[in-house]
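Inputs:
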Amino acid sequence: MIEERFPGHPILPYLLILPSLAVIFVFLIVPFAQSVWGSFYVTSFFGDTRVFVGLSNYLDLFKSPDYLHSVAVTLFFSAFVVLVGLSASLGIALLLNQKISGLGIYQIALVWTYSISPAVAGVIWALLFAPATGLIPWLVKLVNPGYTLNWMTNGALALFVVSLAATWKMLGYNIVFFLAGLQNIPDELTDAARVDGAGPWLAFRHITFPMLSPTTTFLLFMNMLYAFFQVFGLIDIMTQGGPGNATNLLVYNLYRDAFIHLDSGRANAQSVIIFIVIAVAAMLQLRAATRKAAYAR
Amino acid sequence: MTRKHQLSFMTHAALILLVVLLAFPVYYALVTSTLSFREAYQYPPKMLPGGEFWHNIQDAWIRARFGRLFFNSVFISLVVAAVKIVLSLLAAFAYTHFRFRGAGFLFALSMITQMLPLPVRILPTYELMADFGWINSYYALTVPFFASTTGILLFRQFFLTVPRELSDAARVDGAGPLRYFWQILVPLSRTNIAALFVIEFIFMWSQYLWPLIVTNTADMRVVQIGLKMLIASEQIAPEWNVIMAGTVIAMVPPLVVLVALRKSFAQGIAMQSEK
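Outputs:
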């Protein structure tokens, strides 16, 4: 419960939160409500007539093989970014947490990648994998002269490369948070476990990892948001959803329907579907966070 | 060597390897930005810098009008970071120092920002910009970003740790809440302000989708879109040396911000993960 520190100012707190709430209301809540509303309508190509169609935009989406394919691509991509990214960065953070000398230098040397934008990551990985001329296809050719690595024609490879690039870009961010979380765990706890004869793995599994779970759930959620939305620039620069539809993430499909195919009903329905996925994830995260926080105390 | 020393040696070796591995793509990009067009296509690929860096930077600068894009990106990132800091400070002050009707509900409403990222409201937000006449303006590039969940949470967390005696003393001395806020609370929050500045500057600098749809002339584009234009302008073989020079330009400002404020940033993150 918040203590009143300045009694006798009944209006002031409302004035203080007004600017934030006004922005949230005008640019977030109202447009989102319009997305929901618009998802029940079909608008003609020229935007002059609007017909109520109920749930048919949603039904069309779930009957469309292209959309279902986009769902599958997004599932693979986000699972890759979240699982590979979080395990790698947790491993690195554990190494950093070994009471080693020069921690500050390592921290800087690993964390700076946080400042790289998804679009920049996309350009750099496009360079590394540039068909025929890039470094990695060249290396592959050295090892296996008969094989040409070309991610612009190989859909599975393209999906793998964009997943790798997106995961790489988030490592710095994840390491910062994992390391901060690890440093908040009191040494006495793991020391006590060691004294009781637990090896490093047991101590990690039964003490470090559970104590870290507020950080882990937070990062799970942030990485999911990242994999769903913030990678738009990376995809637009690297593949534009191709080859074929191999890297056509939901956010990219939404962009195309909204601003290239100008199919507003369909685009709004996609917005709402994405929202439902996030809302469920956010609730799970919140539940895990509150449960574990109580446990950690 | 004792076992402990061996262990620490192996930890260092592993960490150095990881640092090199993680940094390699950027190193390779940097090297490419210093090569001539012909050198960028030579086999085996060059691993050491050449002498064409400034030439390539000039090329990128002129071809994608990077001067203007650079200004736009810096400007919108500074404005958005600054306004977000002020608005979150004000809101966090209200939620931690006052009891008022609906506080819980309104706080939950401010937290909703995180659940409503641009793609779940993209078309109506775009149409709103059109209704306001904001398409292709700095308003569209900044105002819709002004609310910050991260900021409110960060400052709220910190304000709750400020001892009550400080505000009581201020009150006894006759200072009103706003005076206490500006003269005591805000200066105390320096570290968190710097941390939030890093987060929001980088966040805004990286924006891609929104600038892509709300701007439609070359002089309102941002650096991230400039990279795309640099790639798309190529006709036959990509001029990787020039593209990478543009990439270097796009990497520098957020990196400078992060390195300059790294101590505050690390402290801010540590604070945020102390629940």
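Remarks. Residues 264-296 of chain A form the longest helix (33 residues). Chain A has one domain: 65-296.
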